[in-house]
C-alpha cells in the first residue's frame, strides 16, 4: 500500500472535506496539509459541499456519513446521480470518514458509490493511503480500525 501513495503527488491534489463537526474537518485539513496537500476546501453540510464541488476542481472528497441536513450518503448519491452537471464530477472519488463501522452503513456507502470507507479514529497514514488508492481506482476500498 505504501507504494501507491508514492505514485500520487499529493501537492497536486485538491481535496474537499465535508463534515458538520468543525473540529474533525479542521483535523483532517491539518493532516492533509502536513502531507503536502495545500488546496483543501472545507464544507460543513452536504448542500454547501455540492456547491463547492460545482465551483471548484476537486480531486477527492472526504465526507462524514452522519451530518445534519443532507447526510454523507445523500451527498454521495447526489454526486453519483449527476446532481453536479459538469463533466467528470460524477466520478470524483469520495472517501467516507466516520465513527460508524456497522456493516449496513458501510455496505450502503459502497453501494451508492463511495470509493472508500475509513472508520475513526483517524490514522493519518491510513487516510493518505486511502486517498491515494481512491485517486487511482474506481473499486471501493474499506479500511476498519487497525487494518
Automatic annotation (TrEMBL):
Checking InterPro entries in the record gives: Bact_response_regulator, CheY-like_superfamily, Sig_transdc_resp-reg_receiver
Q: Which residues cross the membrane?
A: none
The name this protein goes by in its record = Response regulatory domain-containing protein
Question: Which Pfam families does the record cross-reference, listed alphabetically?
Answer: Response_reg
Does the entry feature the keyword Phosphoprotein, yes or no? Answer: yes
Q: Which SMART domains match?
A: REC
Using the record's annotations, give every residue carrying the modification 4-aspartylphosphate.
64
Q: Residue ranges of the Response regulatory domain? A: 14-135
Biological processes, Gene Ontology terms: phosphorelay signal transduction system
Gene3D superfamilies, A to Z: 3.40.50.2300
| Species the sequence originates in | Azospirillum palustre
Name the UniProt key words of this record, in alphabetical order. Phosphoprotein
SUPFAM superfamilies noted in UniProt: CheY-like (SSF52172)
Amino acid at each position: 500500500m505504501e507504494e501507491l501513495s508514492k505514485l500520487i503527488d499529493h501537492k497536486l491534489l485538491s481535496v474537499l472535506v465535508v463534515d458538520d463537526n468543525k473540529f474533525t474537518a479542521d483535523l483532517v485539513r491539518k493532516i492533509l496539509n502536513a502531507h503536502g496537500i495545500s488546496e483543501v476546501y472545507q464544507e460543513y453540510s452536504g448542500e454547501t459541499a455540492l456547491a463547492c464541488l460545482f465551483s471548484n476542481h476537486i480531486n477527492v472528497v472526504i465526507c462524514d456519513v452522519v451530518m445534519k441536513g443532507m447526510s454523507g450518503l445523500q451527498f454521495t448519491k447526489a454526486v453519483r446521480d449527476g446532481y453536479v452537471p459538469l463533466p467528470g464530477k460524477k466520478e470524483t472519488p469520495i472517501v467516507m470518514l466516520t465513527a460508524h463501522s456497522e456493516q449496513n452503513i458501510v455496505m450502503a456507502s459502497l453501494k451508492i458509490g463511495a470509493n472508500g470507507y475509513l472508520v475513526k479514529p483517524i490514522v493519518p497514514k491510513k487516510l493518505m493511503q486511502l486517498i491515494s488508492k481512491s485517486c487511482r481506482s474506481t473499486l471501493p476500498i474499506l479500511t476498519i480500525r487497525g487494518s
